Amino acid sequence: MFHKFLKLAAPVALAARVLLPWLGSNLALQAATDPPAWFQRALVGMEVGPTGAQFGGGRHAADYANRFDGAEIVRRSVAANAEYLVLWVRDGEFTFHESKHVPRPAGFGDRDVLREAVDEARKHRLPIIAYCQLQYPSHELRQHPEWKMRQANGKPIDHLVCFNSPYTNSVKALLAEMLGYGIAGFHLDMVDQGFGPPHGCWCDHCQKRFQAEHGRPLPKDIDWDSADWARMRQFRYASSDRFEKMLVEHVRQQAPQATVDFNYHGNPPFSWEVGQTPVRHADNGDFVTGEAGAWAFGALAGSFNAAWYRAATPGKPFQVAIQRGVRMYHDQTTRPLHDMRWEMFTLLAHGAFVTLIDKTAYDGSLDPVAWERMGAVLGEARSKRAHFGQRPLADVGLFFSSRTRDGIGRDKPAAWFQSIQGAHKACVYEHLGFGFLFDENLSLEGLQKFPVVCLPNVGILADAEVDLFRKYVEGGGHLVITGHSGQFDELGKPLARPVLEGLIGARVKSRLEGTDHWVQLDATRLGGQLGQGLEHRAQKRPGTNVATAVPFLVRGPATAYEPITAEPMGKLLDSHRASLPNPAGYNADWPLSARQPVGPAALLHRVGQGTVLTLAASPDTATAGEHHIVEARRLLANAVRLLHPRPRVRVDAPANVEAIVTDDPATRTLRIHLIAYNATPQTTPVKERPYIMPGLIEDTPIFRATIELRDGLKTAKPLNRSTQLKKRANRVEVTIADIHDVIVCRY
Ligand SMILES: [Zn+2]
Q: Least enclosed by CB within 10 Å: which of 339, 358, 639, 644?
């Protein structure tokens, strides 16, 4: 899979012995004596590495990287407005510094790119972060095949190294060499245990350690129904965690000011196979860093990942890496300026600091057009620095359960990830402020930061989590529950007594296993609120007094409930598939038409001071699926609005415009970032029709938005001169002719 080839992103690192609340690069607090570390003050930086690293099995032509020049890269980075440079030093085969352990490319001679860069960077006070690949050490594995991961059948996995093997010592020796150059830190890429089968590790080191830690042998193979496999997953997570911590400690001992960051893989689409969980592995090193990129993860990945990293490492800076290439890091192309601006400002508005990745030509030379464009993007980012880093306002917290990822998602997690990804997508399109919550660090205090918390089809919930949700609602919080939430035990087996029934106020009559589910709203007040903006709401037909609504598809898991104390609304319908003699034999890719009611569509339940609103279907899953109709998405958004009818800021804008609202209470300033995704249409792809790559953003669009502040508004000003703004009382109307603008509102 492509990740094997990913360059991995980025850089980073830093040092701070004291980690302070991250208030934005312009606002970072300082300890009484320590100046802020580089990553606490940086907003944008570059990462540069030679195209060809990771390819060709180390057999390169004579001109490979022979113009890869550390001093020149530093000068170009400074000219391009970078505030730090992640320099590619070590890949699987070679290194670009003088090493006793790893060779330089043949034909490269005695040049030392790291030395060139460090010497030049000193003149510019530019922090140099050494990129060091960890996970595909072809050179070391040729010398030590016994360090390879092993499958359950004993066969080695040739490209993967075991983190419980003595490989650790070889990494430590290499890092010690690089620290001798006086670098600012390391970007270590990456601590994954593979992105798909075959899976490890059953090597002798792991056998021994598992036996010692768990008092039993490793399970014979992967068995999702067994508690031993659950132990094995914990063992895998612990292996990566321990490896990372050992490297951090090693660097700390050698150079306390040098930073360490790991390219993180605890977010979707990555799952158990990588060997990480969302919070635990984000916390290692000085800050979390990961990759976005529409080419690999879709155009919503920037927004999703930034908010995810924030939630996984509360109070710390977080970094996201993007690339200049159209299709991929190494492809030698350069995206249009506005395409890079859209991604950059999405990430900055969410509070990330951003590394822009450049891959040189095969011979190591730099593309002047690419550098001009990258310099423009970084320069604009720095010119807007004062507007990033403030606290985001959130209407809804999206709860993610790593236990459900493993127990329900199992070896096909993508289908289950649709729930959280669709919930996020709905928030972006509907301009709801959102944040993430994780099972690993869930607390009442964390829940109470959100007026509404959404459990999008979260199958597995521990009793302690349900207790927290109950306390949250009793104290005035609001829950939206969808799909099969709370219906499975730790191993993913159905529970006789689903754990959310008390909060929902209804009994689970049956769990519907198909995905062709339909929702029909009714003419009650609740039905009217859930149907806001939908033609599918109940309407009186001409000449009658009967209000009926046309059902709409909400494709995904659903539950037939029997209300006990909750107020039911509307109908959940199954499809005509249910009456077929062989339902599975009918085209499984396409949903079938609505048939008959099987339960209520929604349930409203007052609990203490708060409310639980349960949707029997999964509009979240539907929104991220192939049948992503507007009605399903709006149903989810309306559920949030019904529970939280008077948000502090309400934004109305086109669905392709993301709104990110931040608050700076000290200056009584709300900032509304508006960022337009304006991709161009694509033609039929050569491969895997119709799954096209997204088009590129070439032009600035013109769009309108309205902003309404609940608690009063003194002044409102756009950043862009071209933006037209009309203010009437607490309401602002803007017409923006750009990819990004910020409406700065004083209250
Ligand atoms: Zn092993």
A: 644
The Cα–Cα gap between 569 and 615 comes to: 10
Tokens linked to 423: 């919930």
| Residue 155 and residue 252 in one domain | yes
pLDDT at position 9 = 34
Distance (angstroms) between ligand 1 centre and the Cα of 150 equals 6
pTM here is 0.95
Spatial separation of the C-alpha atoms in residues 72 and 84, rounded to whole Å: 14
Read off the pLDDT of residues 638-677 as tens digits, 9 standing for 90 and up. 999 999 999 999 999 999 999 999 999 999 999 999 999 9
Q: Tokens 């199958």 sit at which residue?
A: 459
Q: How many Å lie between the centroid of ligand 1 and the Cα of residue 239? A: 9
Question: Do 105 and 132 have their domain in common?
Answer: yes
Q: Which of 368, 435, 384 is nearest to 44 (CA)?
A: 384
Instruction: Enumerate residues with CB within 5 Å of ligand 1 (an ion).
Output: 162, 164, 201, 203, 205-206
* 243 C-alpha to ligand 1 centroid (Å): 12
233 CA distance to ligand 1 middle (Å) = 13
CA of 198 to the centre of ligand 1 (A): 13
SS3 594: strand
CATH number at residue 656: 2.60.40
Query: Is the pLDDT reported for residue 435 higher than 90?
Result: yes
Can you give the residue range of the structural domain that contains 528? 396-644
260 Cα: distance to centroid of ligand 1 (angstroms): 24
Distance CA(285)–CA(264), nearest Å, equals 10
Say whether both 353 and 469 belong to one domain: no
653 CA to centre of ligand 1 in angstroms? 52
**Domains held by the chain: number:** 3
Ligand 1 centroid from CA 210, angstroms: 10
Q: Take residue 409 and report the two structure tokens written for it.
A: 């998602």
Distance 203 CA to ligand 1 centre (A): 4
Distance from the alpha carbon of residue 212 to the mean position of ligand 1, in angstroms: 14
CATH of the domain at 40: 3.20.20.80
449 and 371 in one domain?
no
Tell me which of 150-164, 190-204, 529-543, 722-736 is least confident. Answer: 529-543
Q: What is the pLDDT of residue 6?
A: 38
Contact indicator for 128, 87 with CB cutoff of 8 Å: yes
